[in-house]
Amino acid sequence: MDTRSWAFLILWVGGCFCQYEPTWESIDSRPLPEWFDQAKIGIFIHWGVFSVPSYGSEWFWWYWQGKKFPSYVSFMSKNYPPGFTYQDFAPHLTAEFFNAKDWVDIFAASGAKYIVLTTKHHEGFTMWGSKYSWNWNAVDVGPKRDLVDEISSALRKYSDLRLGLYHSLFEWFNPLFTEDEGNNFTTTRFPYEKSLPELYEIINKYKPELLWSDGDGDAPDKYWNSTGFLAWLYNESPVRDTVVTNDRWGKDSICTHGGYYTCADRYNPGHLLKHKWENCMSIDQRSWGYRREAKLSDYLTIEELIKTLVETVSCGGNLLLNVGPTHDGRITPIFEERLRQVGQWLKINGEGIYNSTAWRVQNDSVTPGIWYTWKAQEKAVYAFLLSWPSDGSVILSDPVVSEVKTQVVLLGYKQLKWVPTKPTGLQVYLPALSPAEMPCSWGWTIRLTGVD
Fold it and tell me: Which parts of the sequence belong to the Alpha-L-fucosidase C-terminal domain (predicted)?
């Protein structure tokens, strides 16, 4: 039996037929479900108690109390009475304008294929009525609603978007965690009494197809029993065949173990990686949660977002694009506008994004600002132009063309004229179009077929 056969050998372990053992060698051997690589773009949603002060960052509580950042201390002293605690913010997470269907409509219009909802951030507040988070959850306090259930139900009723759930392993000020931390993680009360039970709870209840783990608290994966949980997730859970996970399962696992790599927030290496990866990034460059004090210049423009999407996909990654809703449950117009603009662009150019793979080169070796993808089934190379050439033509130096077989099309328009260049490549002549005649804005895609 060869190595590949051994990797898929079904073993009888602990009373069940188990394909994966609780070791990183076994866990990492699991093939990534195809849907994730095909999807290319998802929407991240950071929503929690931090959305009430909506100042500075979703790390508000830590910056205010844990690290004593002066601006946060000043904000509280100017706007809230003495003795006001972070827990006092929770009743004001009202969600009175939250409508899950409206959110799903916006996410679907963005062209995204999956979402990742924050079920619990490092503050410990669960957005569902967790029995392991008594009186510190969205059913007991604040909206008095299971927000995770409302979103997951609307997602499955109104769209084909896949459900992903974010969950923080640690909690900044949970006394069980700080006790374990003080014992150098030789005790494990917090993971076994709080974090792991929550993970089993959200998997069994909501059946997400993506689990986005975060917040290891500088504790090793053995403390979190990460491989034990993942073995259950891949062997026995209700989503064992389709679920995808990331790499944040302990302080030494990031960019090393897991289903796909995130490596760092806003990670965009600019070159092809050997392992599937995701660029999680926020439209607001300064925060993942909503900020009332944000300026227009803090938000990425649609041109910057399209550039990031093209670069990410060309290098084999997925883009996870974050928005931060308000405490009352609104996705503000600037976030909605950006998402709908991405969707408008994908309606024309999505052919070169969805279900594509990285080509033999990622960006053109001569002409700057040109990125490539490839579709084997169509035998097509897609070249993305992030700026319209002023002289009416563009040189693509890397495709190997045939004067007989090669055809060149501008997506959303029609076939284009071209001539070969030496020693390789081609010069493509773009039409003189008025703004109204342009097939799209913010970036254009040239499809080449009949190339080697």
Answer: 362-449
Q: How far, in Å, CA of 21 to CA of 311, rounded?
A: 36
Pairing outcome for strands 114-120 and 41-45: parallel
In the predicted model, what is the mean pLDDT of residues 266-270? 93
Structure tokens at 22: 């609780």
pLDDT digits (tens, 9 = 90+) for 204-254: 999 999 999 999 999 999 999 999 999 999 999 999 999 999 999 999 999
Q: How many CA atoms lie within 13 A of 232 on its CB side?
A: 12
Residues with Cβ within 8 Å of residue 137, at least 6 apart in sequence? 125, 126, 127, 128, 129, 130
Average pLDDT, the chain: 94
What is the distance between the alpha carbons of residues 38 and 247, in angstroms, rounded to a whole number? 19
The sign one gets for the Cα dihedral 308, 214, 210, 101 is: negative
CA angle 246, 249, 252 (to 5 degrees): 110
Return the DSSP state at 367: S
Identify any residues that bridge with 11 across adjacent strands, giving them in sequence order.
18
Rounded-to-integer distance, Cα 420 and Cα 410, Å: 17
Burial of 25 (0-12, 13-18, 19+ CB in 10 A): exposed
Per the structure block, which two tokens stand in for 158?
């109104």
Q: 261-268: which pairs have CB atoms within 8 A and are 24 or more residues apart?
A: 268/308, 268/311, 268/312, 268/315, 268/317
Looking at beta carbons, which pairs linking 135-142 to residues 24 or more positions away fall under 8 Å?
A: 136/87, 136/90, 138/93, 138/95, 141/90, 141/91, 141/93, 142/49, 142/90, 142/91, 142/92, 142/93, 142/94, 142/95
In whole angstroms, give the CA distance from residue 114 to residue 319: 11
Quote the pLDDT of residue 16.
57
Q: Which structure tokens are listed for 189? A: 């009360």
